[in-house]
Every structure is written in structure tokens, then in C-alpha cells.
Specification:
Organism: Chitinophaga silvatica
Number of strands: 14
Helix content: 25-40%
Structural class: alpha/beta
Catalytic activity: O-phospho-L-serine + 2-oxoglutarate = 3-phosphooxypyruvate + L-glutamate; 4-(phosphooxy)-L-threonine + 2-oxoglutarate = (R)-3-hydroxy-2-oxo-4-phosphooxybutanoate + L-glutamate
GO molecular function, one term: pyridoxal phosphate binding
Distance between the termini: 31 Å
Main location: cytoplasm
Low-confidence stretches: none
GO cellular component, one term: cytoplasm
Bound molecules: 4'-deoxy-4'-aminopyridoxal-5'-phosphate
Largest sheet: 7 strands, mixed
């Protein structure tokens, strides 16, 4: 292991994925060419794309109505592409505002129809997931952000909804078991739990499409991407390749149930230290804590820089909090080994003893 990498995204990838990808950069499957040097419509690359798409369906156990796409433009592009494809002019989409990423999604949806923000935790600096809300039955869909990367909150269960559910799962995709079939559209930038920056995974129910009357530019119409097997134009080949390798790795680990057990253990270890170490304090309500991004502060903020420097000496990187929430953010995505969290906790204990 090089360092203990707690980056929030792009973030740590499994070593064996990096190793295989580095070989493919020089010679892809004995072709004498780099994966970056072959056409995307060649049989070997088409096989990569197909395997990546079908592994997502398999790992998430998605029903047949779902199609999996790898698109470009990041999760940020989905903020507009979703309402463009699903929200009819003059109709309303419901959103729950749990942080910066949800509010950006809301802003874009307003370009296409009405938005009804049925709950928000903004007033308390997004330190919890709202529990009280009524889902308007006439809304076209309800959008949630399952994990809030900046503030460190996470939906602990899927809200019961009789209208189609849409979710931004960028920072907790494939990290825990969920009934993904309760959703109508799931999207995620792949650069945290799934692969390398450059591709965005969209899993969409075909039955949701073709209902709006507006004209949709070809490249933004999900139906065109589906018809073309996620190869409407040149896809981000290397990002998709790394994603395919990461999905294979996840399957070898035992899939989502197996990785969830490890993720639970990692989060329990870290939060236990945050709760028992007098120097540190968690910033979000306990019941909504994220198992992917743990956010915490020190009661003496002047010590924070010193702690970050101390950690750096211990080869711990990426723990500085987002500029909007301050303090620390320790991201524990799928590829982060349990041992890295042990090292982090040891550093917290040692630093605290030194300061006592
Ligand atoms: N949604 C969430 C929950 C995120 O964490 C991020 C990125 N950190 C985004 C959306 C934006 O993703 P992208 O940079 O891929 O557009």
C-alpha cells in the first residue's frame, strides 16, 4: 500500500485494478496496442462495455426494465438531463434538499418545469436527513441524494414513494444493499466507488422514457444511448475499462453484501473513536451518519492543521473537510482497506494522548 488514501473523489481504487489497467495501457489483451489506441467499436472494447453494463445489472440485481448506460458530463450533467427527459413542461418534480449536490440538481430542474422542494435540512447546515415530508402524488418524480458527500449524511432507507424515485448515488453506489428496483432512475459519477473519473453510470427504466413532448437533442436523449448500447458516440473508453475492472473486483469480493459488511466495520471503528476521543466531535446527527464520508471537527479548531500535518507524516492523506463544512472528512469507499481505518484511529488516539 502506498498511502492511506481517504480522498473524497476521485478516490482510492483497488490495487489490482490499477495493476491490470496499467498493463492494458501498454498492451491490451495481447493486441500489441494500448487500450487507448484501439477503436471503440472493435470487438474487444465492445466486450468491455457490455461486461461493465451487465455487471452493474447483476451486482445491483436490477429488473429487466432497467438499462445501464455510461455517459459523459459527470453527475452534474444528470442534474439537467434527468428533468429534460422526465419532466414535462408545466409539470412538477419533487426534490429533497440534503446538501450542495441536491440544490444544484434543483436549480437545473427549474429550467424544465416546476420544482417542489418538499423538505430541506439547509437551515441546520445539512446536518441531518429530513424525516417529515409529504410526497405530492401529482409530481412526475421524487429526487433524493442518497449520500451527501460534503456533509457526511446518508439516507438509511429508501423513502416509501408511490411516484417514481430518482436518486443521485454518486458517493454510495454499490456500497450497501438496497432495493434498487424501488427506483426508476439511479445515477452516479463513477469516480468514487465504481471506477475512474470520466464516466457517469445511469440506470434507467425504459418505461420512464418517451413521455415528454419537448424536443430533446440526440446526445441528451437516453433512448438514443439505449438503442446504441451506450455507444452513441465515442465513450470514455479508459474510464469504462477501469469501471469494468472495478466491478469485476467487487464481484470477486462477494458483491455488495460482502463489501457492505466491511464498510459497516470500517465506519463503526471510526465513529467509535470520534465518539470516545475528547479531541474530536462528529458534525451530523448520529442516526443519519454516512458510512462513506465521516465528517468531524475539533473543539479547538487551531489544532486542526497540526493534526493534518501529523497524519501526513503517518502517510494518511485526503482527510481535510470540504471548504463548506470545515474540519475533517474521512472517506471510506469500497476500495479502502480496513487497515487504513485502523491506522487513522491509531493516529487520532496517539495525537489525543500527546495533547492531554
Ligand atoms: N453528486 C454527488 C453526491 C457528488 O458527490 C458529486 C461529486 N462529488 C456530484 C454529484 C458531482 O459529480 P460530477 O463531478 O461527476 O459532476
Amino acid at each position: 500500500m502506498k498511502v492511506h488514501n481517504f480522498n473524497a473523489g476521485p478516490s482510492i481504487l483497488p490495487n489490482e485494478v490499477l495493476y491490470k489497467a496499467s498493463k492494458a495501457l501498454i498492451d491490451f489483451e495481447g493486441s500489441g496496442m494500448s487500450i487507448l489506441e484501439i477503436g471503440h467499436r472493435t470487438a474487444p472494447f465492445m466486450a468491455v462495455m457490455e461486461e461493465a453494463r451487465s455487471l452493474v445489472k447483476e451486482l445491483m440485481q436490477l429488473e429487466d426494465d432497467f438499462e445501464v448506460l455510461f455517459l459523459q458530463g459527470g453527475a452534474t450533467m444528470q442534474f439537467m438531463q434527468i428533468p429534460m427527459n422526465l419532466l414535462e413542461n408545466g409539470e412538477t418534480a419533487a426534490y429533497i434538499d440534503t446538501g450542495v449536490w441536491s440544490s444544484k440538481a434543483i436549480k437545473e430542474a427549474k429550467l424544465f418545469g416546476y420544482t417542489d422542494v418538499i423538505a430541506s435540512s439547509k437551515e441546520s447546515n445539512y446536518n441531518h436527513i429530513p424525516k417529515q415530508f409529504t410526497i405530492p402524488q401529482q409530481a412526475s418524480y421524487l429526487h433524493i441524494t442518497t449520500n451527501n458527500t460534503i456533509y457526511g449524511t446518508q439516507w438509511q432507507s429508501t423513502p416509501e414513494s408511490s411516484i417514481p424515485l430518482v436518486a443521485d448515488m454518486s458517493s454510495d453506489i454499490l456500497s450497501r444493499s438496497m432495493d434498487f428496483n424501488k427506483y426508476s432512475l439511479i445515477y452516479a459519477g463513477v469516480q468514487k466507488n465504481m471506477g475512474a473519473a470520466g464516466a457517469t453510470m445511469v440506470a434507467v427504466r425504459k418505461s420512464m422514457l418517451g413521455k415528454v413532448t419537448r424536443k430533446i437533442p440526440s446526445i441528451l436523449d437516453y433512448r438514443n444511448h439505449i438503442e446504441n448500447g451506450s455507444m452513441l458516440n465515442t465513450p470514455p473508453v479508459f474510464a469504462v475499462y477501469i469501471t469494468m475492472l472495478t466491478l469485476r473486483w467487487l464481484k470477486e469480493q462477494g458483491g455488495i453484501p460482502a463489501i457492505e459488511k466491511i464498510n459497516d466495520k470500517k465506519a463503526a471503528l471510526l465513529y467509535d473513536e470520534i465518539d470516545h476521543n475528547p479531541l474530536f466531535r462528529g458534525t451530523v446527527v448520529k442516526e443519519d451518519r454516512s458510512k462513506m464520508n465521516a465528517c468531524f471537527i475539533m473543539d479547538k479548531p487551531e489544532m486542526e492543521e497540526e493534526f493534518i500535518k501529523f497524519c501526513k507524516k503517518e502517510d494518511i492523506v485526503g482527510i481535510k473537510g470540504h471548504r463548506l463544512s470545515g474540519g475533517f472528512r474521512v472517506s471510506m469507499y469500497n476500495a479502502l482497506p480496513y487497515e487504513s481505518v485502523e491506522v487513522m484511529v491509531e493516529a487520532m488516539k496517539y495525537f489525543s494522548l500527546k495533547k492531554a
